[in-house]
Design brief:
By secondary structure, the protein is an alpha+beta fold. It is 32% helix and 22% strand. It contains seven helices and 13 strands.
């Protein structure tokens, strides 16, 4: 998602003024995700090919219609890969659950509260004023479309899956939508708030959504809604992916 610094400066300043930077929460979440990797790692590198790339993956670009719609564009790529006639703008305006603002406020406990960025896209993906969404919003959009189309595929949340298992999925021809950053750079300063059910959600100005379609021992291949097919350092990808709490989604038969 093109969270350009100048274009997002107004949103950034407003949210910063109300004090919603909770770096400690984000760091704890990253530690918990890293610990879960050790618990969930059920495959060794010997159990899947050393390298693999899904060929002829259909690439879509979010620009110019969806300047902040990277996640929904990445989902549309997945749907197209499975032969479904999804269109990115229709997915963004007709299926993606959205809320126009975060509607943050300070609770009696002194914590900042606001709308759930996991379940909704905050803002408008057809403008520069969008923020992000998490797996919940993408799964809702995907499954509503799949039901309307009569498909037996369903979107499933794979968040917390060991990264080695993601490579194993790719080696079986299953592309994985991943939450990462623009250019696979380290995350910019994170800000966030609690939802009414107590879940902490956060976002950064360079947060992004894309699709993992290949890997080698040293690199990963990403279908990026901004840059197209891009190769990144594997360790850097894994670090950024962990900083986004290992959020990922696949489509599978149900």
């Amino acid at each position: 998602m093109m969270k350009m610094y100048l274009k997002k400066s107004v949103v950034w300043m407003l949210l910063s003024l109300i004090g919603i930077i909770f770096a400690g929460n984000s760091e704890r979440a990253e530690i918990e995700y890293a610990e879960s990797q050790a618990d969930n790692l059920i495959l060794t590198k010997a159990e899947y090919p050393a390298s693999y790339e899904i060929e002829n993956f259909p690439v879509l670009y979010q620009m110019p219609e969806l300047p902040t719609g990277c996640e929904i564009t990445a989902l549309t790529m997945l749907l197209n890969y499975y032969g479904l006639p999804a269109e990115k703008v229709e997915m963004a305006t007709g299926y993606l659950p959205t809320l126009l603002s975060a509607e943050t406020y300070v609770g009696e406990d002194g914590k900042m509260y606001g709308n759930d960025m996991n379940q909704y896209f905050i803002g408008n993906p057809t403008t520069q004023n969008g923020i992000i969404c998490g797996t919940g919003a993408i799964i809702t959009a995907a499954n509503d479309f799949l039901l309307d189309y009569g498909s037996t595929l369903r979107a499933t949340d794979q968040t917390g899956t060991a990264v080695e298992e993601l490579y194993h999925m790719v080696s079986r021809g299953i592309p994985v939508m991943v939450w990462c950053t623009i250019g696979m750079e380290n995350r910019s300063p994170v800000q966030g708030w609690y939802t009414e059910n107590g879940t902490y959600v956060d976002w950064s100005r360079n947060d992004h959504g894309a699709v993992l379609i290949g890997y080698t021992s040293d690199t990963v291949k990403i279908a990026d809604p901004i840059s197209g097919i891009v190769e990144y350092d594997r360790k850097q990808f894994e670090s950024v992916f962990a900083s986004r709490k290992g959020q990922c989604v696949i489509l599978e038969e149900k």
